[in-house]
Amino acid sequence: MMSKPVILTGLRANNDLTIGNYLGAILPMVDMAKKRAGEYRVNMFVPDLHSFTTPIDHGQLYDQVINNIKVYIAAGLPIDHDDVYVYRQSYVPAHSELTWILDCFTGMGEMSRMTQFKDKSAKLSEDRISLGLFNYPVLMAADILLYDASYVPVGDDQTQHLEFTRDIGERMNKQFGELFTIPLPVPKQHEFFGKDQGLRIRDLVDPTKKMSKSDETGRGVIFLSDSPEVATKKIMGAATDSFGEVAFDSKERPGVTNLLTILALLSGKPQHEVNAEWEGKTSYGDFKKGVAEVVASFLTDFQARLAAVDEQPVLSKLEQSEVAMRALSEKTLLRTQQAVGLRPKS
Ligand code: TYM
After folding, report:
1. How do beta strands 149-151 and 41-46 pair?
2. Cα of 130 from ligand 1 centre, angstroms
3. Which of 31, 68, 208, 263 is in the most buried spot, having the most CB atoms within 10 Å?
4. Is 213 known to be catalytic?
5. Which of 70, 118, 213, 234 is catalytic?
6. Neighbours of 335 (CB within 10 A)
7. Is 210 a catalytic residue?
8. First-last CA distance in the chain
9. What are the start-end ranges of the H helices in 76-130?
10. Sheet hosting strand 41-46, strand order edge to edge
C-alpha cells in the first residue's frame, strides 16, 4: 500500500461539464491539490468507460476526454507536481478486471436500489437500460479501491455510490482479509474538504432538480463552455420564488438559495458573508445581476485559461501517469486475484 493518503476523483466525459461539476468536484479537488500535494497523492482521472452508460455521440467521446483533462488544468490542477496523476480509466485495464470480480460479490437488489440508476432508467425503455448503467457503481468502486483512496470529493448525487464503495470494500475485506483501504465515511469526507454537507447545485429553471450535464434542454444549466452572454441570460431567467426578499433557505427558497451558493463558491467568500450582503434585499433583478456578473467573469477567465492549455504536455503527462497507475493498480488487482483463487498465493 502507498504511504501517502490518496485523494481521488473523476468526471465523466459524456457532455460538456457544468458549473455543478466544477463546484462539486473540480474545485475541492484542485484546492486540495494546490494546498496539500506533497502530503497526499492526488489522482484526477476521466472515467471514460462510465461515459456511455447512457447513449452518447461516440464520434465526440475521445475529444471530450482530452478536453476534460484540459479543464482540470485550466481549473488549476498542478500537473507538474510529482504527486499529481491524471489518467484515463480505459488506459488502465485493472479497472475493468477488478469490476468483474466485484460484480460477483454484488447483489442485484443493492444495485436496483441506487437512486441514480432508478432515475436514469426511468427515462429509458427496458431494452435501452444498459447493463453498464446498472453496473456503474461497481466500476466506480473499482476506480476508488484500486488506488487505496481515502478521500473522494464528489457532489451530493454520488454519496450513495461512495457508500456502496465502502460496503463492497468492507465485504471483501471481511471475507478475504485486508485487501482494500476503505474510503472515509461520507461525513468525514465533508469535514476533510471543509464542508458541512455534500454540494448539490440545482437546475436554474427547475431548482427542485440538480443541475445536470445530460439535461435535454440545457436551459437551466450553465456549461463551462457557455459564453458569458448566454450564461447571463440563463441566470437572469432563473426561477426564484414569490417571497420577494432574498434569503438563504434551501427548502422554501431553493432557487434563490442556489444562486447564493453559486455566488459564494465562485467568489471564494464564506457563505454567511455573501448571505449577509444580500439577505433582505427586495430586488431579485439586482440580485441576479450581481450573480450573473460573477458567473460571467468566472467564465471569461476560465475559458481564456482553457484556450491557453497546450496539448502536448497534457498528452505526455497522461502517458506518464498511466504507466504509473497501471503498475500501482496491478498490485491491488493481483492481491485480489490471489485472494479469490485466480492466482497462486505468493
Ligand atoms: P459525473 O460526471 O456525473 O459528475 C462528476 C462530478 O460532478 C458532481 N456533480 C455535481 N456536484 C454538485 N452539483 C451538481 N449539480 C452536480 N452535478 C454533478 C458529481 O457528484 C461528481 O462528483 N460517478 C461519477 C464519476 C466517477 C467517479 C469515480 C467519481 C466514476 N468513478 C470514482 C469519483 C471516484 C460521476 O458522477 O460523474
Report:
1. unpaired
2. 19
3. 68
4. yes
5. 213
6. 17
7. yes
8. 16
9. 94-103, 108-112, 115-122
10. 84-88, 41-46, 6-10, 149-151
Alpha helices (H) in the chain, listed in sequence order: 19-21, 27-36, 58-74, 94-103, 108-112, 115-122, 131-145, 159-176, 186-192, 228-236, 254-267, 271-278, 284-307, 311-340
- List all residues whose CB is within 6 A of at least one atom of ligand 1: 8-12, 20-21, 23-25, 47, 50, 140, 143-144, 152, 154-155, 157-158, 161, 199-201, 210-211
d(CA 31, CA 326): 26
Within 10 angstroms of residue 239's Cβ, the number of other Cβ atoms is: 16
Grid look-up 474545485 returns 27
From first to last of the 346 residues of the chain, give the pLDDT tens digit: 447 999 999 999 999 999 999 999 999 999 999 999 999 999 999 999 999 999 999 999 999 999 999 999 999 999 999 999 999 999 999 999 999 999 999 999 999 999 999 999 998 888 889 999 999 999 999 999 999 999 999 999 999 999 999 999 999 999 999 999 999 999 999 999 998 889 999 999 999 999 999 888 999 999 999 999 999 999 999 999 999 999 999 999 999 999 999 999 999 999 999 999 999 999 999 999 999 999 999 999 999 999 999 999 999 999 999 999 999 999 999 999 999 999 999 8
CA of 21 to the centre of ligand 1 (A): 6
> What's the rounded Cα separation, in Å, for the pair 198 and 190?
7
CA–CA separation, 263 and 269 (whole Å): 8
Cut 0.90: pTM above it: yes
List the Cα angle 155/158/161 in 5-degree steps.
155
CB 219 within 8 A of CB 203: no
Copy the grid coordinates of residue 182.
476503505
* Residue 49: all three cell numbers together: 468507460
Give one DSSP letter per residue of 17-50, joined into a string: -BHHHIIIIIHHHHHHHHHHBTTBEEEEEE-GGG
